[in-house]
Design brief:
Length: 324
Amino acid sequence: MTPFESTASWFVYGILSIDSQTAFGQAMHFFVMDVLKIFFLLVLIIYLMGLLRAFVSTERVRSVVVGKPLWLGRSMAIGLGSVTPFCSCSSVPLFIGFVEARIPLSITFAFLIASPMINEVAVVLLISLLGWEVAFWYVLAGLVVAYIGSVVIGWFKPERWVEAYVWDIKMRQAQEQQALANGWRARHGFAWSEVKVIVKRIWHWVFIGIGVGAAFHGYVPQVWVTETLADASNWWSVPAAVLLGVPLYSNATGVIPVIEAMLGKGVPLGTSLALMMSIAALSLPELLILRKVIRWPALLLFVAVLVVAFILVGYGFNYFYAKL
């Protein structure tokens, strides 16, 4: 149990005395746990990124990144995402940090797609519950989706859709230069100002997004999802799985036991994995928070690319496993 889980349990079940077996209790526990986790990550990562920029100028960071081939940058971002066990909302602070560091958005989106879907804990659980073949093909599909998805998003030049407060280059360059010249106190002040600017802009969206996810987590019964998707003959089961996964907020590790239960009830493998990908990488709370960082065109592009990718992955798994 993580410190966030234990603190949430102490507060919700101990201090508030809410029954842990009720839907309300589970929703409240989920809400408190994720609020603590996401704000901790948000403050920590933005501060560290700001501190890095106060020691190493943005132009220097950008020159290193821009000097590398995009395929290498994407591959490195996907590799980083694959070893960081973040849920989709927890990946947003690092996404913001990448944007702040002027890393190209096509590379940044590669991380944002890969991080929630693929991590070592999820892979181990997939192997133990579903076998190494399913784990291998799931990871391969996740890597392909992250790479190709980031390439497609990059075609549309998404940098133009970053909110101005995140990417206000002229103002921040002047602050960076002052911090670089004036020692530790100035650098700390610059990093902390970055935290205050961004947290002030998005804190209420974090609460709203996690609240929506917590409500679905506590009140949407697993059996309803399973019964809706169980009929393999329905062509719409894969798109329905992807759409159902958006509000059902969790991480890849947490959703694997649900997928195992669905497979036991006869839900096709491709449909189940499409749901898993959607839950892990395309959550409604994540989208609500991202909207305060990127504008509607970039957000809709991100959603469209992943929805199409997950549907294709679902149909592909269903087709090939039906032939076995």
